[in-house]
Write a sequence for this structure.
């Protein structure tokens, strides 16, 4: 696969929603990688600012979400398409962000962080940077993670490179993790966990904490 960490050749930034061309492009595949950027980590307080999508051919689109925006119909059509698996790293946050910010009910889901914790029990390191380094051999630059994603002006090149790279290697990571899960006879368990993610995300949105504790 392409291990270049600069902005990919087929890369687009949209304001508020995808266009028809990119909806058609993503609708041709059975797998897409997705990530989100927000003003913070608290749903309802910290608004959704950016949604990144990448397909198996390294086509990457970033959708900027405007202040006060609560709908993105074309993005929603892709995210809710049952024939396309959406791959996230820590899906619990992103699924909640898309539901809270845009009313999107993502389905179906594969979470590389959950898969990593179930498959890679030989390590406590399940962050995206560590996971991609081990499985893909690519070192991600995370310096722009805590930056202003809600800025009115155009996003910086560093922000765009960061946003693109957070999704560009997820499909290959998913493929390798799925092989590991099959090998260790844990794939069914992981799939059951993925189905729980929308419920956990809803609990997070509603500020329920420690629901499963004694």
């Amino acid at each position: 696969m392409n291990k270049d960490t600069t902005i990919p050749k087929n890369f687009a930034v949209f304001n508020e929603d995808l266009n028809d061309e990119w909806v058609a492009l993503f609708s041709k595949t059975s797998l897409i990688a997705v990530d989100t950027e927000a003003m913070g980590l608290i749903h309802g307080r910290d608004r959704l600012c950016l949604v990144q999508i990448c397909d198996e051919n390294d086509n990457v689109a970033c959708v900027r979400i405007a202040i006060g925006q609560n709908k993105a119909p074309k993005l929603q059509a892709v995210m809710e398409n049952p024939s396309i698996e959406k791959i996230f790293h820590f899906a619990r946050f992103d699924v909640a962000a898309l539901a809270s910010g845009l009313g999107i009910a993502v389905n179906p889901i594969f979470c590389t962080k959950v898969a990593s914790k179930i498959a890679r029990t030989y390590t406590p390191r399940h962050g995206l940077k560590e996971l991609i380094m081990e499985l893909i051999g690519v070192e991600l630059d995370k310096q722009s993670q805590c930056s202003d994603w809600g800025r009115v002006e155009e996003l910086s090149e560093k922000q765009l490179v960061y946003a693109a790279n957070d999704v560009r290697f997820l499909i290959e990571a998913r493929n390798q993790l799925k092989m590991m899960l099959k090998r260790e006879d844990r794939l069914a368990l992981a799939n059951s966990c993925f189905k729980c993610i929308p419920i956990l995300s809803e609990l997070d949105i509603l500020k329920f904490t420690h629901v499963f504790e004694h």
